[in-house]
């Protein structure tokens, strides 16, 4: 048995981060569906990009909160060390 010959696949487009950012800004203004039509994209691409962007923002916030907490705990530890040294 032989496999049927399939048409060659179209090469995937690689969009730059700048393009993605601008596409998401446009989608905020005119909506996902309209932006997808205007940019010849699938709506799912815009939803995926938006989801990834939100996840990155959440991760950055979490990291900065953790850094602030670490700094606070280090100060607190230094104060306790001073108290014990006296």
TrEMBL record:
InterPro entries: Homeodomain-like_sf (IPR009057), Transposase_8 (IPR002514)
An example molecular function term from Gene Ontology annotations: transposase activity
Stretches assigned to coiled coil: none
Biological-process GO terms, alphabetical: DNA transposition
Assigned protein family: Belongs to the transposase 8 family.
Protein name: Transposase
Naturally occurring in which organism (per UniProt): Kosakonia oryziphila
